[in-house]
Specification:
By secondary structure, this protein is of the alpha+beta class. It is about 25% helix and about 35% strand. The longest helix has about 40 residues. It is elongated.
Amino acid sequence: MCESFIVTCTDNDKVEIDEFHINFWHFSHDHTIIDIGLLVELDASLMLKDELSFEFYSPFHYVSGETENLSNLMSKNETLQLIFNDEVKSITNCSSSIAKKSNVIKFKNKKKMILTESSFSESDNEQKINIVIDNKNFDNKTLGTLFENNSIKLYLRFRYKVNRNKTSNIYIDKTFSDEQLLIDFRFNEVRFLTNENSKIYDTIIAIRKVYVFVILPINYSIKLNSDIYLKYIRVLEADENCWVDYIDELKNHKKRFLVYYWKNQLNNNPTNYFNLLVSFKSQTSNLFNKLKFATELGVLSIAFLLIPEFINFDTIINEIITVINPFEFKININRTLINTIIQAVGTIGFTLVLGVTSNAIWDFGKSLIKRSKKQ
């Protein structure tokens, strides 16, 4: 079992991952989607090969058959600008094949890169994804103009759905009222490797920079965090056509989303690793809080009303006084007055329960009316 994000290649001494991007989209306790982006810097000699092969390992098991190549979704200027937070100056085709497209992306403030449509295939263990780049797909004339310092940068992006039944690096404690979410991100960590998978250790590709984005509904609050790596928290852009074209799941969600962003630099050494442990907790709704308060108050009210039926205050108080009073005198207790006070407290409690419950039902009705008007 793999406990870390790792990318391997037999020519790992000629390859570096300049940027490792991960978008962790959490929609509910049983629906999480991972987007992976790899900005790979290759030595020029590797482009002479017919194809390049990589193996991507994920600590989060994926659902078989749902790995998706995102290169087509990133053909629009608007989508590229959203993801890279930079103005796109131009998109130029550099492919020699109609079947598979590769585009040169030029940004205003970033270096140019090639967005290529690679081939992805899944493995039986639902943790490894095989990536193949067909170098014959590139137009050699255009490709020759893109080398810088005898290297070239290719960008790969793909998506998979997390299989919650098998994943141990994501811990979710779900109750009726809320949810506790704990995510253990690991990059190039090798402590789990054994002699059986030593091949992974020998072919690990160094990572220079790691970018982690966690996107979840706005009713979640962060509880555990590595502040030193946290760069910002923002509200996901609400424009209906903004992110919906990129990820369909946002069409069915009425809630706004928060984006948490962490960044770390690993200094391009294969032995350098990065761990990020974060946790979140969903906030209970006002409706549930009111019903919870009404239930607790109702239990206490019932207890107060039943106390006089089972407790003899004359006996109890006289026993206490006998213990603490050396003269052992008896006193008379007004049982009727005590019972009246206790019953009054219970009655007031039940009145409050009815009021709070009615208010909660009223709030629920108003929320239904608002939703129907939006639709």
